[in-house]
Amino acid sequence: VAGLGNYGLQGTRHSVGMAVLDRVAWQLAVAEGWRADRQCCADVAMATAHGLELVLLKPRRLMNLNGLSIASAAEIYSLRPEDIYLVHDDLDKALGKVAIKLGGSARGHNGVQSCISALHSNEMTRLRVGIGRP
């Protein structure tokens, strides 16, 4: 599960994917388990939920390069694109509204496009979090 955003710009609507991952880590009692992983240039925490092992990942790059971190992590943890969930902001959704999208185009989102390019696939599931048009 990768939270897209601009590392170092936490608290902005554009980095809501990272904020969602922080909340998930807290709810799964692994919030203290974040560690910097230099191999994939990301903060990583391991968790278990409903019998599934999860890799929570917050890229330490700008949004347009998030895909490089996610592709590296996919290789390290032997994940296929269809195993990956992207959590990202969506300008076209009202603030706080969420939607799940299975694969498809990036719809103009540079972080998602970076992931599609780096993984050579658009099969990732996306949790789109509405941020509205400020």
UniProtKB/TrEMBL annotation:
Cited SUPFAM superfamilies:
Peptidyl-tRNA hydrolase-like (SSF53178)
Leader peptide range in chain numbering: none
Tell me where on the tree of life, at the top rank, the source sits: Eukaryota
GO terms, molecular function: peptidyl-tRNA hydrolase activity; tRNA binding
**Alphabetical keyword list:** Hydrolase, RNA-binding, tRNA-binding
Name the Gene3D superfamilies for this protein. Answer: Peptidyl-tRNA hydrolase
Q: Which PANTHER family match?
A: PEPTIDYL-TRNA HYDROLASE (PTHR17224)
Full protein name = PTH hydrolase
Per the UniProt record, the source organism is Rynchops niger
